[in-house]
Design goal:
With 385 residues, chain A is an alpha+beta fold. Chain A has 13 helices and 16 strands. Chain B has two domains: 90 residues, Elongation Factor Tu (Ef-tu), domain 3, CATH 2.40.30.10; 168 residues, Rossmann fold, CATH 3.40.50.80. Classes of the chains: A alpha+beta (385), B alpha/beta (281). Chain A: InterPro entries: 4Fe4S_Fe-S-bd, 4Fe4S_Fe_S_CS, Helical_ferredxn.
Chain lengths: 385, 281
């Protein structure tokens, strides 16, 4: 066992698989709701879990354009699937919430926010791309002018326990987006799962004091240099096996300067405008508000809920939408994600998680659409020269 | 559980009272609002807007149409077109509404200092321009010519008749109005506003233009000004998009890389011209 003063930010240690349950028990004892991966309805989803038995042990996920399915792994890895079907987004940016309630009676009109204490959550099993996505959402919801108090409260109380990806998925391209696969920032603790024929351990790297507080209560032993070396090798291997790539060089200008390209019409013929891609994307932040009035006519409330730029009412103005065509709506989504985000928030709005590819019923692949647009732009350039 | 105080949400409106209401036309009213509890003033820039909430209806963006020097009360001119604007102007004097604001980047009146100032309004577009006009007229000598061109559907839909009479009567303002159609009793111009722009007196090398109206009208008016050698970077337009938050967080008002609620609604033409010419942005 390591002594308490050895367990501090920057330290590396090892937790054995047999002791993994302790991690969850300690988190619960510290008052956290533990949200982690579990299998539900044929997919790995992030839900509140009670014990390590709920984790997707020995589960692999296979994804392709328009496809997602689970398989059995040859080993008993706890985190051997690719990132979950839905990201952590719903836990910080709620799909629906009451913003305020209004009361009206006589010469009074008043507004009050609901007093719901934010849950104290520990997220277990976060991937590098998912941490990068939260960093991006922070820029939207915690901006100086008008921070979202609900997001901020959930965010500030949350503990992030990350896992380095031991494998890349067929739709992953975090290397292109410079967001993974190695967890480098935003986390409190990061685990790397080390599986050998005779051992099953986790290399635990402590990043913050909040992470160290949890780690101090775990039965950790010192990490051997060769265990650290194996973790590095696993990450190098993962980085080498990305299923997809996206060439981001000059991509912002290619998108912004080719809003009238025929490729938009081409993708519109396939896109069903179902909004799945915006539902699963960990960075999509668009939302709408609805004001509903109670039947008594004396109270009302404002609700905020997720919205999608694929919906017609999103851009409604004077009796009609600004973007009636699917072509304009797909163009808006992709151009915003890969180009306008950079102007608005300083980085691409895509972290390369691949979810929009796997969950598109029409098998539309953002990396292929970007490549097609790049070819078009290059041909147009060659034509001019 | 972390204890979280119910922090004021930026979505929470302030309560304001309608202290005056005047019907401008059959479907458009000008409301004067004062804060119910706060006595403090609300400074604003010409061209900025507020989010107005009608209890039981909902919330919509509405430009401020009053004098920027008169900050104790806020003036809005609203056309009833749907489920929020209808109940807003159905309110009687004394009624309470919710208000958040002011938001957005307005008309850069200062950019016209020492120059000719051209104001081109189509329909309700005169409402967001009115604060800029009043501001400029308060310090008339800071500008060269002031030209106000106003186009409306018909004589019955002309707004701010008192102002119009004032502007028309001033020797130091070049005011002209045109309507799309009119009866026998109308002795003024009939036809598109472009004709007034063609005939307007201004020095293209030393002028700034503010345009507000339907998007097509703004595009054509800007083209006409450019045909008269007014450079793009001397032309400003005010855009309209669906808006829910007004603080760059709901995504609805996006216009290319811009958030109309925060970066606009007023934009310098050269910064958005390509987008304005692309359909369905
Ligand atoms: C910056 C800005 C300034 C404005 N200033 C004024 C003003 O001074 N006076 C005035 O009368 N109107 C103004 N408008 C337009 C006004 O916001 C719309 O007429 C209003 O939103 C219509 O809402 P409704 O619910 O009554 O109509 P509905 O037709 O029932 O609209 C349903 C919803 O669609 C959206 N919507 C519909 N039309 C518009 C529109 N033109 N602009 C934005 N959202 C729309 C709103 O969310 C609205 O609640 C302004 C709009 C913007 C963006
Ligand atoms: S755009 Fe697609 S790949 Fe990129 S972050 Fe969103 S869901 Fe993931
Ligand atoms: S790209 Fe695919 S997932 Fe997104 S709206 Fe179109 S069909 Fe749906
Ligand atoms: S109105 Fe919400 S982003 Fe502009």
């Amino acid at each position: 066992m390591l002594s308490a003063d050895q367990v501090k930010p920057g330290a590396q240690a090892v937790l054995s698989r047999a002791d993994f349950d302790h991690l969850i028990t300690v988190l619960q004892a510290e008052g956290y709701d533990v949200i982690g991966p579990t299998v539900d309805n044929g997919a790995v989803v992030y839900q509140e879990i009670d014990n390590a038995g709920a984790l997707p042990e020995g589960v692999a996920s296979r994804q392709a354009a328009g496809r997602y399915r689970l398989e059995k792994r040859a080993d008993n890895a706890l985190f051997g699937y690719i990132a979950g079907a839905q990201s952590w987004r719903p836990y910080l940016f709620q799909p629906s919430r009451t913003v305020w309630r209004a009361e009206k009676s006589g010469d009074e009109l008043s507004f009050t926010e609901p007093e719901e204490p934010a849950p104290k959550m520990a997220f277990l099993g976060m991937r590098a791309c998912e941490l990068a996505a939260i960093e991006l959402q922070d820029r939207v919801f915690m901006n100086g002018d008008a921070p979202d108090p609900d997001y901020a409260a959930r965010r500030s109380g949350a503990l992030f326990i990350a896992v380095n990806c031991g494998e890349a998925g067929e739709t992953c391209f975090c290397v292109s987006m410079d967001t993974g696969p190695k967890v480098t920032r935003g986390h409190d603790l990061v685990l790397t799962e080390l599986i050998a024929p005779d051992a099953h351990d986790f290399l635990v790297e402590i990043e913050t004091e909040a992470g160290a507080e949890i780690a101090r209560k775990l039965p950790l032993r010192a990490a051997e240099p060769q265990e650290v070396g194996r973790a590095d090798a696993i990450l190098a291997e993962t980085a080498q096996s990305m299923g997809r790539a996206l060439d981001t060089n000059g991509l912002k200008e290619i998108l912004q300067d080719n809003q009238d390209a025929p490729q938009w019409g081409d993708v519109a013929e396939r896109c069903l405008s179902c909004a799945n891609c915006t539902l699963v994307c960990p960075t999509c932040f668009c939302n709408t508000t609805e004001d509903v009035t109670a039947l008594d006519g004396e109270s009302a409330e404002r609700r905020q809920r997720w919205a999608s730029c694929f919906n017609l009412d999103f851009s409604y103005l004077h009796g009609g939408p600004v973007r009636p065509s699917v072509e304009a709506r797909y163009r808006q989504w992709m151009t915003h994600k890969l180009a306008h985000w950079i102007d608005q928030f300083g980085d691409s709005g895509c972290v390369g998680c691949g979810r929009c590819i796997s969950w598109c019923p029409a098998s539309i692949d953002i990396t292929e659409e970007a490549a097609a647009l790049r070819r078009h732009a290059e041909e147009a350039d060659n034509g001019e020269n | 559980m972390t204890a979280v105080s119910a922090q004021t949400d930026p979505y929470r409106p302030q309560v304001w009272r309608i202290v005056e209401k005047q019907m401008e036309t059959a479907d458009t009213a000008t409301l004067a609002l004062e804060p119910k509890d706060r006595a403090n003033a609300m400074p604003f820039e010409p061209g900025q807007f507020n989010m107005l909430y009608a209890f039981g209806g909902g919330e919509v963006p509405i430009s401020i149409s009053g004098d920027p020097r008169e900050t104790g009360r806020i003036i809005h001119t609203i056309r009833a077109v749907g489920s929020v604007t209808r109940p807003l102007i159905a309110h009687e004097r004394g009624a309470l509404v919710g208000l958040r604001g002011p938001f957005g980047a307005g008309w850069p009146v200062e950019a016209a200092r020492g120059k000719d100032l051209l104001i081109i309004a189509g329909g309700l577009g005169l409402a967001p321009l009115r604060p800029a006009i009043l501001d400029a007229l308060h310090r008339r000598s800071a500008f060269q010519r002031i030209v106000i061109l106003y186009g409306a559907k018909d004589p019955d839909s002309l707004l701010f008749l008192g102002d119009i009479a004032d502007w028309r009567g001033r020797p130091d303002v070049g005011f002209d109005v045109t309507v799309d159609r009119a009866g026998q009793d109308w002795h003024g111009n009939i036809g598109v506003i472009l004709r007034l722009i063609k005939a307007a007196h201004f020095d293209p090398a030393n002028a700034v233009a503010f345009i507000c109206g339907p998007e097509v009208m703004m595009r054509l008016a800007a083209d006409e000004l450019m045909a008269r050698d007014l450079p793009q970077d001397s032309i400003y337009v005010s855009l309209e998009r669906n808006m829910k938050c007004a603080f760059a967080r709901c995504g609805h008002c996006q216009f290319g890389p811009h958030f109309v609620c925060k970066d606009g609604p007023v934009f310098r033409l050269d910064r958005i011209r390509a987008l304005l010419q692309t359909p369905e942005i």
